[in-house]
Structure formats: C-alpha cells, structure tokens
C-alpha cells in the first residue's frame, strides 16, 4: 500500500465521522476539507472508494473531470519547521502536535486539513506519522530523512533528561506519537546507526510498550556489535561485550530488557539479560523481585539498612507480605 493511499484513507475516514459531530464548526471544517480533498485527489479517491462508499461522498465530488494529482512538498518550509519537533517552550501535547501538523500540512499544500486538526486531537495524532511517511516517500531525499532523524534523537534525548509531566518531553501522548514516527522513518534510512535506538527503547518502556522496547533495544545492540566479528571470540555474549566496552549504556540496556521481559511475562528471558544487576544493590533487589525471591529481597534490604539506616527502601513492605510477615510489614512505612 502506498503512503498516499494510507494517508487518504485515514483522512476520509475521520472527515466522514466529523460530518456527524455535535459542533457545527467541526461539520463546516470537515465539509470544506472534503470538497478540497476530492478536488485535489479525485482520481485516487474514486479508485479507492467502493461503490456504496462513493455514494456517501457524492455531494463533495465535482462533476468536472480531474487529472491524477501528486503530492508536492515545499522543502524550504519543511526544513524551517524542523525546530518545532523539539521546542524550548512549554507546550501541552495538543498544542505541540497541532502546531507541527499545521506547518507540515501547509508545506505539502494540504493546509485545508488544518482546521479539522485544530478541532480533533485524535485525528491529528493518527495523521502525524502518516504525513511524515507521505513527505519522505514524496521527496525521497536522504537529507530530509537525516533532518527528521536528528529531531527524533534530540526529542528522545530530552525525554530521557526531563522529570516534568507538563513539558511535551514528559507527555506519554507525545512520546507515543514520536515512537510511531520512528516506525515510519526507519524505512527510509539505510544507516540505522544514525538513530539512537537505546533512548527510544527507554521511551517505549515509559509508554508501557514493552515489545517495542525489546525490539529497539535489540536493534541498538545489533548495531553496536555490527563491527564485531565473531561474538564468541572473547567468550562474551552480546550484552556482556557491550557492557565491557560501554559500561553505562550496557547496564542501561540490560535493565531495559530485564524490565521489558518481566512485564511481558517472559521470566526465562530475564536470565539472558546480563549480570549488571549484581553490581548495584538497587537493581539486585529489583532482580530478586522479578524472580519472586522475596526472602532474598528482605535479606538484601536488611544488609543495606545495616550500612545506612536512613535509606527508604521501596519493595521491602511488599517482600515482607510475600514472606508471610504481615505484622512486621505493617510496621514498615
């Protein structure tokens, strides 16, 4: 399926729904957009719609014979809007995605869809990655793909370094939307190493997209090891080799995979996620929790409290409950 066909199908489906909205302004915006859409893509839409569907949109179809039209993209405008992906200002998700979509639609001569995007956030969210796909498939230029990859890397780097749920980088909706953009952009680059899949994997964990986190974590590991010949030449597994060469990122990767496999419900896979948890007491306790070794959790917590009585240990109360020590657990705050 061509990106344009997917894009048009999504637009028509949403605009048709908007025709029955309770808000007259939404109905007006959808009607105007449908008139312009059928005027611009009459050939593609008439071929796409089935006979019974064509009757539904008959009022919006011009009787004049139209030639097949292709999407055109203003590259200069597209380059100028790239900074909108990673704003310095504080935006809500709705403001952020609407702002970018309006600019992209304008650069592709599809600005008549902007009013509907302003009214309907769900339309904007679904259309965003499809519009990126449409732009990249139209331009077919590596420079454009690289520009978007740069913004993707910046976005997820800033997401990893923010604790604010107000900013767009801490918004689950915004991060999920950018994950969908990554799925699209991957098709258009031969150099996968340009994309920082490790930070994207962390973002997927944030969105509870655990299968996605595993996929991107494995992709990052594969790219990291692409220069290594025989994985067994040093007697190290892929994860151990990465940790040996890059301790910080190696441990991050192991922790991500361990959490993702645990949430997915693959306990056997957890054992293949390396041994970095043995070097840090916090991750060691988490690992015991993953395995259901509650007495080991209690013992590890006891050891840490002996070293620092002021520590606030998460998971101790839950571990005591699992060990049947209910009265003691009730005294642990």
From TrEMBL:
Coiled coil: none
UniProt-listed InterPro entries: ATM_plant
GO molecular function: protein serine/threonine kinase activity
A GO BP annotation: DNA damage response
Protein name, as recorded: FAT domain-containing protein
Source organism: Cuerna arida
């Amino acid at each position: 399926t061509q990106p344009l066909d997917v894009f048009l199908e999504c637009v028509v489906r949403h605009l048709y729904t908007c025709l029955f909205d309770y808000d007259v302004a939404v109905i007006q915006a959808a009607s105007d957009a449908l008139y312009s859409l059928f005027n611009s893509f009459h050939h593609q839409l008439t071929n796409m719609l089935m006979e019974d569907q064509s009757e539904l949109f008959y009022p919006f179809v011009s009787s004049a014979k139209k030639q097949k039209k292709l999407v055109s993209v203003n590259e200069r405008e597209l380059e100028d809007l790239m900074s909108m992906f990673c704003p310095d200002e504080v935006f809500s998700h709705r403001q952020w995605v609407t702002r970018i979509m309006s600019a992209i639609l304008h650069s592709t001569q599809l600005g008549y869809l902007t009013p509907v995007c302003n009214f309907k956030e769900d339309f904007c969210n679904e259309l965003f990655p499809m519009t990126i796909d449409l732009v990249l498939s139209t331009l077919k230029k590596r420079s454009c793909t690289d520009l978007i990859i740069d913004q993707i890397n910046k976005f997820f780097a800033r997401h990893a370094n923010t604790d604010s749920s107000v900013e767009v980088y801490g918004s689950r909706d915004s991060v999920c939307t950018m994950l969908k953009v990554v799925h699209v952009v991957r098709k258009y680059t031969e150099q996968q190493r340009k994309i920082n899949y490790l930070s994207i994997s962390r973002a997927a964990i944030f969105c509870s997209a655990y299968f996605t986190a595993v996929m991107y974590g494995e992709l990052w590991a594969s790219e990291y090891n692409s220069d290594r010949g025989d994985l067994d030449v040093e007697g190290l597994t892929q994860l151990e080799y990465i940790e040996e060469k890059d301790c910080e990122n190696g441990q991050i990767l192991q922790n991500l995979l361990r959490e993702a496999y645990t949430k997915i419900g693959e306990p056997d896979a957890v054992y293949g996620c390396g041994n970095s948890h043995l070097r840090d007491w916090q991750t060691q306790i988490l690992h015991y929790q993953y395995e259901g070794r509650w007495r080991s959790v209690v013992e590890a917590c006891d050891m840490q409290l002996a070293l620092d009585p002021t520590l606030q240990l998460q998971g101790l109360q839950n571990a005591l409950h699992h060990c049947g020590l209910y009265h003691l657990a009730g005294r642990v705050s």
